[in-house]
């Protein structure tokens, strides 16, 4: 699914962002989007034939920018949104999604958060991991570190697959 979404976005914006800066902007923005995150950004970078390590750095930055906002601000934002009719439903949906996955983090705490963010499976990532950490009232600084390290781990795994490093080794 991530690859299809990334391919769609590259196709949608590929012509509009034909310059090198434009291509980097595309992968940066993709990396900030929930669900796609760094994983989608690196797939897009590979599709755009961008250099591997520069793409990793740009996608990493795009993926970690939302993390502090989620950890420190999501609970107060959710409290305010809950009182609004239509946005209250969004809050409930987000909380249900996070609660359905919280057992993966709750028992192992920060190592669980690192693994949840770092192993690129569908439904995992920094957005969901940090939402769960915030809802569980985990220490924000430790959660920030665990999430950032998880993004690095996910990035390394995705580099291996997105850029075909495995194919070059074998």
Description:
The chain is an all-alpha fold. It has 2 domains: 2-64 and 157-169, no CATH class; 66-154, no CATH class. Helix content is 79%, strand content 0%. It contains 11 helices and no strands. The chain has helices at residues 2-13, 20-32, 37-47, 52-64, 66-82, 85-101, 103-106, 109-118, 126-135, 140-162, 165-169. It starts with a helix and ends with a helix. The mean pLDDT is 88.
Quick rundown:
By secondary structure, the chain is mostly helical. It has helices at residues 2-13, 20-32, 37-47, 52-64, 66-82, 85-101, 103-106, 109-118, 126-135, 140-162, 165-169.
Integer average pLDDT: 88
Please give the number of β-strands. 0
Secondary-structure content class: mainly alpha
> What is the alpha-carbon Rg in Å?
16 Å
**Number of helical segments with 4 or more residues:** 11
What percent of residues are in strands?
Answer: under 5%
Q: Share of helix among residues?
A: over 70%
> How many angstroms does the end-to-end distance come to?
26 Å
> What's the overall geometry?
globular
Low confidence ranges: none
Tell me the layout of helices and strands.
Elements: H1 2-13, H2 20-32, H3 37-47, H4 52-64, H5 66-82, H6 85-101, H7 103-106, H8 109-118, H9 126-135, H10 140-162, H11 165-169
């Amino acid at each position: 699914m991530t690859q299809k979404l990334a391919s769609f976005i590259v196709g949608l914006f590929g012509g509009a962002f034909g310059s090198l800066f434009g291509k980097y902007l595309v992968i940066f923005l993709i990396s900030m989007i929930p669900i796609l995150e760094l994983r989608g950004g690196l797939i897009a970078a590979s599709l755009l034939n961008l250099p591997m390590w520069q793409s990793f750095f740009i996608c990493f930055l795009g993926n970690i920018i939302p993390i502090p906002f989620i950890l420190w601000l999501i609970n107060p934002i959710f409290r305010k949104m809950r009182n609004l009719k239509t946005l209250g439903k969004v809050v409930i949906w987000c909380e249900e999604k996070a609660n359905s996955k919280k057992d993966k983090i709750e028992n192992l705490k920060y190592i669980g958060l690192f693994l949840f963010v770092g192993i690129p499976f569908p439904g995992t990532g920094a957005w969901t991991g940090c939402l769960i950490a915030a809802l569980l009232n985990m220490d924000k600084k430790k959660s920030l570190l665990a999430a950032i390290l998880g993004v690095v781990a996910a990035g390394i795994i995705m580099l291996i697959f997105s850029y075909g490093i495995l194919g070059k080794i074998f």
